[in-house]
Design goal:
This protein is an alpha/beta fold. The chain has 5 domains: about 120 residues, Archaeosine Trna-guanine Transglycosylase, Chain: A, domain 4 (Roll), CATH 2.30.130; about 120 residues, Up-down Bundle (Methane Monooxygenase Hydroxylase, Chain G, domain 1); about 50 residues, no CATH class; about 180 residues, 3-Layer(aba) Sandwich (Rossmann fold), CATH 3.40.50; about 40 residues, no CATH class. It is about 45% helix and about 15% strand. It has 18 helices and 14 strands. A 5-stranded mixed barrel has the order 2-4-5-6-7. Strand 6 and strand 7 form a beta hairpin. The radius of gyration is 47 Å and the shape is elongated. The N and C termini lie far apart (about 110 Å). The N terminus is likely disordered.
Length: about 550
């Protein structure tokens, strides 16, 4: 239900008016404002005002969180207002439209049945129509015009109203009511009693708001330009994709994206990632048909395939390691003891600067299989590189990318294959490396095996440093015919050969079963006696090992 009010002039010295405390708003004279009223005492005050002369006194609470404010919880200066319209809402609250009439100060409180009445006295602004005040009003009008141009929420009609106002109090009231101020700032301006001081504050506030709005406008303009630029880039990219699709180049774009994903997944060091992304940038500017594009693509794929971070958890349980070595190899007690001593040192240090193991012995004594057992014992992945006949340094270090068909060296290729950065790397028959006019591979092997250098191993193809310090290198050799610098970096463990008894036990535990499996013979079809095995060892084989 809506009710429109008609007001009549009252004598403030004679009349009491209902009091309406306001939580979060300050109403100024000569301004119209909607209010939502919900407290029971406030609803009663509105009802009383509507039943009499439509006047009500609006005053702000000192603390807006106070639910039932007492007399001391209210400011003393407020605004006498008239109720222009009242509307009762379904939830029991009331919406009223009020117009501020004049500033007033509370003289006395009177408690009615369920609301409060007050007697008030008019609170006028002390003003003299000086030239300075007029100049300040003109300056305030100019500043407010600038403010309105920046703040589109204020209608321009307000400026036209201000241009026709000559009264300094009304002039400042209209401006203050349209400024974005905090509650305590508005209350302070309402309580001001000197025209010059009030205009000073108004000018300062307007200038501050202009500065803030100007900064906001600059930020919005910058953001808009950025958005327009992004939209333009997006539009051009979409057009490019469409053109590429027509030309059959869309797959190339997908390939660039896939390579970027691979680079991110590889978890490369910063320097390596920067190198990969630099090459990817070059590739994105090339035609897919270019020969250089194929070279760069292969290079990036090789960088991504190298294990940069992934590694296995090393077993540090020496008893478990001994059990695995004993299960895989019969005898060789001194050799296994030396190996366990070496592993014990590695479990107690964080760095990996121990000497490289080199298993030396005649063919067939179990050097290669012992390397596999060590890998199993320490829970490292196993990778083997045969060095027999290697004569070219590039087989170790790789070829530079300028060569056609260039690829990484065997060290990096094996690391790509094993996919972890801490495998056991077996260098088989290391003494069979030989040098010729293409270089000396043993010199390249020095960098691989030297703990002081291998954390920055440089493959010619990769062109970036690769850390081999977490790799456990084990070498095998049939003799000690090795360059002295290599020997200096290795711990020699000699496997001299097996006794007859050891050979019999190895045959019974491993070799007979393996031979039967290779020839498709079942255990029920043949039986080997110890004497037969001994005769084979004595009269049919002439070797230190058990290969034949």
């Amino acid at each position: 239900m809506g009710t429109e009010a008609t007001t009549e002039v009252i004598d403030l010295t004679q009349e009491r008016v209902p009091l309406l405390p306001l939580r979060d708003v300050v109403v100024f004279p000569h301004t119209v404002m909607p209010l939502f009223v919900g407290r029971k005492s406030s609803v009663s005050a509105i009802t009383q005002a509507m039943g009499t002369n439509k006047y009500i006194f609006l005053v702000a609470q000192k603390d807006e969180k106070t639910e039932n404010p007492g007399n001391d919880d209210l400011h003393q200066v407020g605004t006498l207002a008239t109720i222009l319209q009242m509307l009762k809402l379904p939830d029991g609250t009331i919406k009223v439209l009020v117009e501020g009439v004049k500033r007033a100060k509370i003289n006395q409180f009177f408690e009615a049945e369920d609301y409060t009445e007050v007697s008030v006295s008019e609170f006028n602004l002390e003003s003299n129509e000086s030239i300075e005040v007029k100049a300040m009003m003109r300056l305030a009008l100019d500043s407010f015009e600038t403010y309105i141009k920046l703040n589109k929420k204020i209608p321009e009609e307000v400026l036209k109203v201000l241009q026709d106002i000559s009264d300094v109090e009304r002039f400042s009231d209209v401006i203050i009511a349209n400024l974005n101020l905090k509650l305590n700032e508005k209350q302070s301006l309402l309580e001001g009693d000197h025209a010059k001081d009030r205009l000073d504050k108004v000018l300062a506030v307007i200038q501050g708001e202009i500065d803030v709005l100007s900064a906001e406008k600059k930020i919005q303009s910058r953001v808009r330009k950025q958005m327009e630029s992004n939209q333009k880039d997006y539009y051009l990219n979409e057009q490019m994709k469409s053109i590429q699709k027509e030309l059959g180049q869309a797959e190339e774009e997908n390939e660039i994206e896939d390579l970027q994903v691979s680079i991110n997944k590889a978890k490369m060091p910063k320097a390596v990632k920067a190198k990969a992304e630099s090459e990817l940038k070059k590739l994105s500017r090339m035609s897919s048909q270019s020969s250089d594009a194929s070279i760069i693509r292969t290079y990036i794929e090789n960088l991504c395939d190298v294990p940069w971070k992934k590694k296995t958890i090393i077993n540090k349980d020496l008893k478990k390691a001994q059990k695995i070595l004993d299960g895989d190899h019969y005898g060789l007690n001194k050799v296994k003891e030396r190996i366990l001593e070496h592993l014990a040192v590695q479990t107690r240090v964080t760095h990996n600067k121990a000497n490289i193991l080199c298993l030396v012995g005649p063919p067939g004594v179990g050097k290669t299989s012992l390397g596999e057992s060590i890998a199993k014992a320490v829970n490292r992945k196993y990778v083997r590189m045969a060095l027999g006949g290697v004569r070219d340094e590039a087989e170790i270090r790789g070829h530079r990318r300028t060569y056609i068909g260039a690829m990484p060296g065997s060290i990096v290729q094996k690391m790509q294959k094993v996919k972890v950065k801490n495998p056991l790397f077996l260098l088989d028959e290391i003494e069979k490396m030989a040098s010729d006019y293409r270089g000396d591979p043993s010199s390249a092997m020095l960098e691989v095996l030297d703990p002081e250098q291998n954390h920055t191993f440089n493959d010619h193809y990769l062109e970036v440093d690769y850390d081999l310090s977490q790799v456990m290198f084990v070498a095998t050799a049939n003799s000690l015919d090795l360059p002295q610098p290599l020997l200096d970096r290795m711990e020699i463990i000699e496997l001299s050969g097996y006794t007859e008894d050891e050979k019999v036990q190895i045959a019974k535990r491993h070799l007979v079963a393996k031979a039967m499996s290779n020839n498709g013979v079942k255990s029920s079809e043949i039986d080997f006696k110890d004497s037969a095995i001994l005769d084979i060892i004595r009269y049919y084989t002439r070797e230190a090992g058990v290969r034949s």
